[in-house]
Amino acid sequence: MPPEGDGFARRAGALLRSAANDLKRDDEHAERDLGLERGTFRSYTDGQRPLDWELIRRAAEVWPLNERDLLPAHDDCPRGLAVMREKDSMAGARVLSRAGRPYYEYRDTAMSRIASYRPEWIRMLQVVGDDEADNPLVQWNRGHLLYQFTYFVGPVNYYCRWEGRSRCVPMETGDSVWGLPFAPHSFAARTDAEPAYILALTYGGGLTGDAQRELAVLGRSAAHALALPVTADPSVTARMIRSFMDAGALTATELAGRTGLPQRRTEALVGGAEPAGPDELALLAFGLGVSVRDLLPPRTGTDGGVAIQHARDARRWELPGEDGRPAYLVTRLAGDPLHPHTSALQLDVLGSDAARPSPLTTYQHQYVYVLGREGVRVRWEFAGEHFEEVLEAGASAYIRPQVPVTFTAPDGGRPRLLLLRIAGAVTPEVRHALGTMAAGGPDRYIAEDRLWYSKEGN
Ligand SMILES: [Fe+2]
Questions:
Q1: Verdict on whether the full-model pTM lies above 0.85
Q2: Are residues 409 and 434 in the same domain?
Q3: Residue 412: domain span
Q4: Structural domain includes residue 296
Q5: 62 to 18, 65, 243: CA distances (angstroms)
Q6: 73 near 11, Cβ under 8 Å?
């Protein structure tokens, strides 16, 4: 367990208060339900007294909630940015064998309990002499839950399998790939004469956490029924429309009446036989009482479960600093519209320590890895304080959302960074909810500190 001087007890208390409010229990009734001494509930909700396991167990027993609902997250990044040095990555190195032979060397890099990253530095120990997908020396995995962004360094062969078709893609330094969950894959070195490794940056996105727990309870048939395919086919939008019709117990006749669309046309759109035009989508959204975006499927550019970006044809652009001079050369790495809130970038740092790059700020969680052998100076601001560190070669870092950072070259060289930015659980839906709460709502949402009404009245 990490140290709990991080506000853990206070956040736990706020969750207990929030849960009691949701269940319409005032202090007295909560005490009765939970078997607490009279007048003590408040000392738990204000964080004075830590929630013990017995209290959590009792709450999950007598109230319709889960133990997890009362357990807050740990804050292991109290300075806004947390660094993992190369020597610490190396200290945890482990070699895993496949078919009795050493296959990969793994090293952990920067992770935080706040974000779903599981980023590994992985060296390929198996050398192959060809680019054949069926090379028997290649040991495939069974695929895994986490999305995987991979950045390649050196002569690495990438193997991927989708719907029974296997292929091998020879990669060079700077190439990258983004892949969907549970697709089997593998990696091997084309030579042992030079380093061949990858940054395998896996992350859960919205898949880990509450959605996984909910579906695990709902079961297989619900999970299959709830899966929405992603194709350009009009049947996908039709499925979204039918979902909202089910939700509102609507008939095509009623929908036609609400939208003014002809009955026969409405039936064709609901059945997915024909695509809806923009005006029709707006009418359908109005009739269903939703926004047009709720009817639109996402787009994917994946082919065979992966989106590959070779360095040789990647987009590159310069980002100017406050003095107008180029501060960074940015290269766009692999990604997919299916994950609009994931951005993978390679950043060449052009400015020396004397330069004044504009701070980079994003709403995403951010992972940084120092590529090459040149270190970089990182400066950031968090909670009104200014910090700086030098990240040497092989170091990695996690940066909280909304933390402004700058990178400069302490030795006047041109350090190169890998950035992987991902969304957490704060989806656009949650951001819109925060933005539409009544005054003071967001503050109480993250730290409920009061009963939902006043005992004294008004
Ligand atoms: Fe993997």
A1: yes
A2: no
A3: 310-422
A4: no
A5: 16, 9, 34
A6: yes
